[in-house]
Amino acid sequence: MRSWSAALTAVVLLGTAGCGAVATDDGRAAAGAATICTHGTYTWSGIRHVERLTGLPDRITYADGGYQGVIEPVSDTVYRPTVTHPPEGVTPARVIEALGAHLKTEDPLAGPSETAGQEKTDFFDELTGPRQRYYTWESVDLIEADFTYACGLNQPVHGHVQTWDTYGGGFLPCSEPSEGVPARVAAVKLCPAGSPAVTGV
Length: 201
Known about the structure:
Elements: E1 3-6, E2 10-13, E3 19-20, E4 36-37, E5 41-57, E6 61-63, E7 66-73, E8 82-84, H1 92-103, E9 121-125, E10 134-150, E11 157-173, H2 181-190, H3 196-199
Antiparallel strand pairs: 1-5, 2-5, 3-4, 5-7, 5-10, 6-7, 7-9, 8-11, 10-11
């Protein structure tokens, strides 16, 4: 579970500048106009990782030898990766890829065509041992970051990225303390009052 802020600022160099002038109708470069420059450098700052709850079941029942239920969306919120002020000639997907390269994520970050938050999940867990109460949830690990993009002689471009790296969640007994906001919300809803999952101890 993650929820923290990083004040670290770092520069990612994606190659040598490849610039093409924005030209007027007669083919001359427009005076003072920005050029399309697609291989500049990113400076990242204000990186934040926040886990958002996306799904909970109304109840967990025990039948046919297993714990089962349906995890449904907790709200109408649909999470979509976004990039504000992408550099001229650079797609939002490439900006997100640059952030992933900076963070050295194991898997690619979610791209502009992906969504999260409206999935419905049927689950069935066969567990050994005495029957007891459980809590479960689904979440998404959002990443937000500010960037400054510098390329050629252009003015720096300042923008913002929101995406995610992984989907989270868990299935735990109410006898175990919850960790993180989404897990605690699930515990309060599904576990007995006073249980370790609710009290955190």
